[in-house]
């Protein structure tokens, strides 16, 4: 017997009630801001509100693309994401492969446990640690450099160092956590395959190359596609905390620029226009890569 | 099977041991400097072993008013936020786990869409401002009340509970609410704990909301205080003992002590909660 919509609502009323807070939250804090994007087509005035502000069409989008800063921040955003993918993506795979070859369970546990630790640190703590370690006068890294006869480097004030610092600290924080999924995937590989490879005379490296890696291939492909989709999603907090005016040439990204120009200086419409521009590109990237990863296997972001 | 330890194993273990040191060194170094006495810190010769052990830096940090306020605020945000988030997420995820829920697919689609697209920083800020949440404790709790990722983890878990259990509950005369509280929730302790920890860690480290929505220093969470002291060098409140020479170097111990005090709770609980996080990470990675 098929119930009418009203009948179904009546049947499910308890569940709809339980779901209500969640949906109200999503509407109030996720969907209302989406409609707030309209201010990017207006000369938004904080005191007149959306209803009282005049429409200006694409003025702020034109302003963004005519601004020489635009090229720099788009380039910085894409490059940071790209380097993070290039160096950050293989790292957990290599770690998982190496951990998988360890025979002493105690040692393996130990390495795994310490490798997850940095993941639980807050971004402020990680940025503070970087700030202290790289200090030209008191940081240990500069002391070590000087002991080896090199001059001290003011790392956080030099644009040339920003990407290296950002990417390597990301890897330090994420590599252990990222390896969990690959270690789980390794356990699903049939042990008989290793047996067979050994019979054929394969050494340890050959077993990794011909058995473990092919066994991980699907997981690797899916994770790669998902991360490609999120290439523009760079931690605002971390870039904000580590960057400064001296390094804006390489460290200023779209979100830090929006915060500074849009929010701090009160150019709300201009900031919202840049936000929308980035949101649309991000949406397309995630959507497309998720579609592809779905075709690879059943797994996808949703 | 013969187990020979070859060159491969030796190299592998050596590299992993080096890797483990890289992971641990920052923590040990911070602890060593913050525990050393000023005269040794002046010489900059502390690497992993504290010299002239004393707890002056920690004593100074723990008597600092801003640190204590920050701690108190963060605890309030974590307890309040985790409780609310967990309750709302559980209710929502349980409802969405019912396959024939009316409009269930539409609701799910609405939630998933927010993973892909958002209004962005400025419209979100203006919305929170319109709701008059700026400079209230709710600014640290409400704008991130439900995380789609956590909701999906819970929903997937609930979907895995056999329907027969619920039906038998029904036959025994339980109401829908009774089935949730008497049958489903007791079975869901692992996922509840995992999601609870995810929320707690997320709120503990939340700097973004504080930066955007809080101007009143009395409401600052610990993260803002750590940043102000360590990165911005706002140290006036801490009693800096200059008795032992160079002020700047004592400052170094103080800053490391600040960082450690802000990390200690997580590092202390870490061994106990680690396995739950890993379960959550695996559950979250295989989604329906």
From TrEMBL, chain A:
Membrane topology: Multi-pass membrane protein
Transmembrane segments: 12-29, 78-99, 119-141, 208-232, 268-288
Keywords: Cell membrane, Membrane, Transmembrane, Transmembrane helix, Transport
InterPro entries to which the protein is assigned, alphabetical: MetI-like, MetI-like_sf, UgpAE/MalFG_permease
Pfam families in alphabetical order: BPD_transp_1 (PF00528)
Subcellular location: Cell membrane
UniProt domain ABC transmembrane type-1: residue ranges: 74-289
Primary subcellular site in the record, as a coarse category: membrane
Family: Belongs to the binding-protein-dependent transport system permease family.
UniProt protein name: ABC transporter permease subunit
Organism ancestry: Bacteria, Bacillati, Bacillota, Bacilli, Bacillales
From TrEMBL, chain B:
Protein topology in the membrane: Multi-pass membrane protein
Top-rank taxon: Bacteria
Domain ABC transmembrane type-1 residues, every copy: 71-273
Cellular compartments annotated: Cell membrane
Keyword list, A-Z: Cell membrane, Membrane, Transmembrane, Transmembrane helix, Transport
Tagged with keyword Transmembrane helix: yes
Keyword hit for Cytoplasm: no
Similarity section: Belongs to the binding-protein-dependent transport system permease family.
Protein name: Carbohydrate ABC transporter permease
Organism of origin: Cohnella hashimotonis
């Amino acid at each position: 017997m098929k119930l009418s919509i009203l009948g179904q609502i009546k049947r499910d009323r308890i569940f709809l009630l339980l779901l209500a807070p969640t949906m109200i939250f999503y509407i109030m804090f996720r969907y209302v801001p989406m409609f707030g994007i309209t201010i990017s087509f207006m000369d938004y005035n904080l005191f007149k509100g959306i209803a009282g502000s005049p429409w200006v069409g694409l003025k702020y989008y034109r302003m963004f693309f005519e601004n020489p800063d635009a090229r720099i921040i788009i380039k910085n955003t894409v490059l940071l994401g790209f380097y993070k993918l290039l160096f950050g993506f293989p790292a957990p795979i290599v770690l998982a492969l190496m951990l998988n070859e360890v025979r002493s369970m105690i040692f393996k546990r130990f390495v795994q446990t310490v490798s997850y630790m940095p993941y639980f640190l807050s971004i402020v703590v990680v940025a503070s640690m970087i700030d202290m370690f790289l200090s030209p006068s008191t940081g240990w890294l500069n002391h070590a450099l000087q002991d080896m006869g090199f001059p001290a480097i003011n790392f956080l004030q030099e644009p040339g160092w920003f990407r290296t610092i950002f990417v390597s600290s990301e890897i330090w924080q994420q590599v252990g956590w990222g390896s969990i999924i690959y270690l789980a995937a390794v356990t699903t590989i049939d042990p008989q395959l290793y047996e067979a490879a050994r019979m054929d005379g394969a050494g340890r490296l050959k077993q990794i190359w011909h058995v473990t890696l092919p066994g991980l291939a699907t997981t690797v492909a899916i994770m790669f596609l998902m991360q490609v989709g999120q290439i523009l999603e760079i931690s605002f907090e971390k870039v904000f905390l580590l960057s400064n005016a001296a390094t804006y040439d390489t460290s200023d990204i779209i979100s830090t620029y929006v915060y500074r120009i849009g929010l701090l200086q009160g150019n709300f419409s201009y900031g919202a226009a840049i936000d929308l521009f980035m949101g649309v590109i991000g949406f397309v990237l995630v959507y497309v890569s998720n579609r592809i990863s779905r075709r690879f296997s059943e797994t996808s972001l949703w | 099977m013969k187990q020979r330890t070859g060159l491969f194993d030796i190299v592998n273990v050596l590299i992993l041991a080096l890797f483990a040191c890289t992971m641990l060194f920052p923590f040990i170094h911070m602890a060593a400097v913050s525990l050393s006495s000023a005269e040794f810190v002046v010489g900059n010769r502390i690497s992993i072993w504290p010299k002239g052990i004393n707890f002056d830096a920690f004593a100074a940090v723990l008597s600092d008013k801003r640190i204590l306020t920050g701690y108190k605020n963060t605890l309030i945000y974590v307890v309040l936020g985790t409780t609310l988030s967990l309750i709302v997420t559980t209710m929502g995820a349980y409802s969405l786990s019912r396959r024939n829920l009316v409009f269930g697919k539409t609701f799910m689609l609405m939630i998933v869409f927010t993973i892909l697209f958002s209004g962005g920083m400025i419209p979100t800020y203006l919305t929170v401002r319109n709701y008059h949440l700026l400079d209230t404790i709710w600014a640290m709790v409400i704008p991130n009340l439900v995380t789609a990722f956590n909701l999906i983890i819970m929903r997937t878990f609930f979907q895995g509970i056999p329907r027969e259990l619920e039906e038998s509950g029904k036959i025994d005369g339980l109401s829908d609410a009774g089935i949730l509280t008497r049958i489903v929730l007791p079975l869901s302790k692992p996922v509840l704990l995992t999601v609870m920890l995810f929320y707690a860690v997320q709120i503990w480290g939340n700097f973004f909301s504080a930066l955007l929505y809080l101007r009143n220093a009395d409401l600052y969470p610990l993260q803002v205080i750590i940043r102000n002291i360590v990165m911005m060098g706002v140290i006036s409140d801490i009693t800096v003992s200059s008795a032992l020479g160079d002020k700047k170097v004592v400052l170094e111990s103080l800053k490391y002590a600040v960082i450690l005090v802000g990390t200690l709770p997580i590092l202390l609980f870490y061994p106990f909660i680690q396995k739950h996080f890993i379960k959550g990470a695996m559950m979250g990675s295989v989604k329906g």
